[in-house]
Design goal:
Layout lengths: L2 H7 L8 H6 L1 H10 L6 H39 L3 H36 L20 E6 L12 H7 L3 E2 H7 L6 E2 L2 H19 L3 E3 L4 E2 L1 H6 L12 E2 L4 E3 L4 H5 L5 E4 L5 E10 L18 E11 L4 H18 L4 E5 L11 E9 L4 E10 L3 H6 L1 E4 L5 E3 L1 E9 H11 L1 E2 L2 E2 L6 H4 L5
Parallel strand pairs: 4-9, 8-14
Antiparallel strand pairs: 1-11, 2-3, 5-7, 6-7, 9-10, 10-16, 11-12, 12-13, 13-16, 14-15, 17-18
Helix pairs in contact: 4-5, 6-13
Amino acid sequence: FHQAAKVIFAKIDCMLQVQVLRNNTAEVKKKLAIKQFKQLELVDQVVSLDDERKKLQADFDQTQAKVNAASKEIGKYMATGNQAEADSIKSNVAAWKALLEPLKDQMAIVEKELLATLVLLPNLPADAVPEGKTPEENVVVREGGLKPALYAGAVPHWDLIKTYDLVDFETGAKITGSGFPLYKGKGAKLQRALIQYFLDYNTDAGYTEYLPPYLVNEASAFATGQLPDKEGQMYHATADNYYLIPTAEVPVTNIYRDTIVKESELPIKMTAYTPCFRREAGSFGKEVRGLNRVHQFDKVEVIQIVAPETSYAVLDEMVLHVEQLLQSLQLPYRILRLCGGDMGFTSAITYDFEVFSAAQERWLEVSSVSNFESYQTNRMKCRYKDASGKTQFTHSLNGSSLALPRIVACLLENNQTPDGILLPEVLHKYFGNNKI
């Protein structure tokens, strides 16, 4: 059990508060089942461990109360010179004090087990999350854009990047390993153009830009829910016990760890470009060919910290924000509301954006926009004081705006012509040309 967990979870109200689990056990299990969470017995274990913790605490408090009361009596007897009575009580006090340390040790063991069990429970899905086990059961909310009719000689992006010398996978594999692309020439320039455009688009919408560290400590990874859930998917720098970030969500959201913000500061809107590192263990085959799935990629993220009563309105706003960005790139897209079985560990509700890859004739995910409600902010103690002066947890949301590899794949494939690859108008000034 990680040291960071001891530090963080010893001071949180717990991702799924024990009282919620205790008072709504059947409903919690029903919600977890929608997420296809199999270890429903953990809910009962949490309640049982909390019962044990409460009993030990009660025994400790009662014994400590006896010690305190007896100590006062000893003082009275000593003041009146009744040494015999004082000595008699002292022997009882010694016996009671001998019980306190073992009780304290037992409580620490039970509390550690309780917290270790709690961190295995995912966030509960929102009421709007559809039931389902697989991506095929996600609900299409809406579609936009027109699927292009490609010319007869059209090819997939992995052929186009060779024709126009945009990405060198072989040299990237030599330098690092498979799944680490080396962008070059106009390929590198297109990356830079997209990143700059996405950042400008986000800052124009009121997001403050950050450039965060690309490695985080355990406390940060726990706070946003990457640990312990996604430990095997992250690259781990073991000598310093740092993790390479899988997304800018991790360092940027942690800016507000252990913070109480003013209500007037909400909503807090942040955006950041970072490279992202994901092991993606077990990925292989045609569906991950080319830029479809890589271990290192660039992404621009948007994050909001908001008051709880506004978080679902903000979710709609962020979905629209990403949708309009895709519209500006003139890419055919669709928006999916993920079913419970396809959702992430920390999310209460997620909308995925997919763009249509014309040469591959398939949809590729390019963004996820999620509301975590108080799951992350509870872990990281991000709170605010409302108008009445009450301190409560904020809600956190984040979305890709956008992830570059599959956007690049679709821009290349959908806009290819016999004379080059046409670029959408919004990129012309960033790229310095209207086509590759």
